[in-house]
Amino acid sequence: MSQLFIELYLDEDVHVLIADLLRGRGFSATTARDEGQLEKSDEEQLAYAISQGRALLTHNRHDFEKLARAYAAAGKTH
């Protein structure tokens, strides 16, 4: 199976086994644990995902919606 276009970064709110399942479906997926990013703040998790060119996958939707709005208000893209 060829790799799909989206590259995912799973923060620590998402169980690491999800990354294995996603990789099995052809996604490029890595986790906060894999990348040595455990116990980082939401802001740091988002900044890391952006720096790696990955989409952030989280269960913490409400906090990250606020961060996304703050990025947009500051003229930043992610």
Please describe what this structure looks like.
The chain has 78 residues and is of the alpha/beta class. The chain is built from three helices and three strands.
Quick overview:
Helices cover 41% and strands 14% of the residues. With 78 residues, the protein is of the alpha/beta class.
Low-confidence stretches: none
Order of helices and strands: EHEHEH
Most strands sheet: 3 strands, parallel
Mean pLDDT: 92
State the end-to-end CA separation: 28 Å
Figure out the total of helices: 3
Shape: globular
Please state the structural category. alpha/beta
Question: Any idea what the radius of gyration is?
Answer: 13 Å
Q: How do the strands line up in the largest sheet?
A: 2-1-3
Helix fraction by DSSP (H/I, runs of at least 4)? 40-55%
- Strand residues, percent: 5-15%
Secondary structure tally: strands:
3
Give the secondary structure arrangement, pairings included.
Blueprint: E1 7-10, H1 16-24, E2 28-31, H2 42-51, E3 55-57, H3 61-73
Parallel strand pairs: 1-2, 1-3
Looking at this protein, list some descriptive labels.
78 residues; alpha/beta; 3-stranded parallel β-sheet
